[in-house]
Amino acid sequence: MILFDSHCHIDDKSYDKDLDEVLGRADREGVKALMVVGIDLETTQKAIAIARGRNHIITSTGIHPHDASHCSPGLLDELTGLARDNDCVRAWGETGLDFNRMYSPQKDQETCFSAQIGIAADLGLPLIFHERDSRGRFYEILKSEGNGNGVVHCFSGTKEELFNYLDLGYSIGITGILTIQKRGAELREMAPLIPEDRILIETDAPYLTPAPIKNKVRRNEPAFVKSVLLRLAEIRNTDPERLSEIIFENTQKLYGTDFTV
């Protein structure tokens, strides 16, 4: 089995003391590539440092919607420079809209989101999207400004939203939510509807630890993406090894990588 954790945050301070052990466990579970996602300048710099010397790790850069009120031309220029100067940066984001917690005003979120869509297009990078409770605005902006190159991270929307994103050409990121009995019920119903060439799997580590691991371990980590893959294969009634190979290639195609294992 060959796995690609398409979205994790192992730059988080919770990994500072045992990152090598975390990566070792991932490798033993078949995780042969990881995307460490930047959500601001500091996390992007740390992600790049983690990727340095580790050829199976790639990174992204961007401004999370929670931090959109701090978005400025100068900050975007700094992030653009990091993307241009570091080969490990293979995507832009995590960016999008989050009207649930509203850590940044809606206007700031939409302005920052649109700016990042344009930058990613100029750089030729796929986008990693965050969406929560945007009441259709996320889709409206994508439809008018996006180019179909990206992934909707941690998808947990409606069937209508799923088909809208697929119609625009985007991939769908599946997390450990799929494994959680109550919270993942609707996602398990929709998972078989996603074309196999548009699925990615992710941990979003250290968040969203899959079941039943979450009953024993609080911190998620890339090794646990295997649990997502196995549950997804069961739901889709397909061979896990074959599905893992398909999803690995889906992720390589999106991020423009050529990992050989």
In short:
With 261 residues, the protein is an alpha/beta fold. Strand 5, helix 5 and strand 6 (150-152) form a beta-alpha-beta unit.
Task: Identify low-pLDDT runs.
Answer: none
Radius of gyration: 17 Å
Q: CATH fold name, please? A: TIM Barrel
Helical stretch tally: 9
CATH superfamily: Metal-dependent hydrolases
Strand content: 15-25%
How are the strands ordered across the major sheet?
A: 1-2-3-4-5-6-7-8
Question: What class would the helix/strand composition place it in?
Answer: alpha/beta
Q: What is the count of structural domains? A: 1
Major β-sheet annotation: 8 strands, parallel
Q: What is the CATH architecture annotation?
A: Alpha-Beta Barrel
**Share of helix, binned:** 25-40%
Query: What string, H for helix and E for strand, traces the elements in order?
Result: EHEHEHEHEHEHEHEHH
CATH class: Alpha Beta
The averaged pLDDT comes out at 97
What is the terminal separation in angstroms? 11 Å
Tell how many strands the DSSP assignment holds: 8
Q: Judging from the principal axes of the Cα atoms, what is the shape?
A: globular
Please give a structural write-up.
The protein is α/β, with parallel strands linked by helices and 261 residues long. It has a single domain (3-255), classed as Metal-dependent hydrolases (TIM Barrel, Alpha-Beta Barrel), CATH 3.20.20. It is 40% helix and 16% strand. It contains 9 helices and 8 strands. Strands 1-2-3-4-5-6-7-8 form an 8-stranded parallel sheet. The longest helix is centred in the middle third of the chain and has 18 residues, at 106-123. The model has no long low-confidence stretch (mean pLDDT 97).
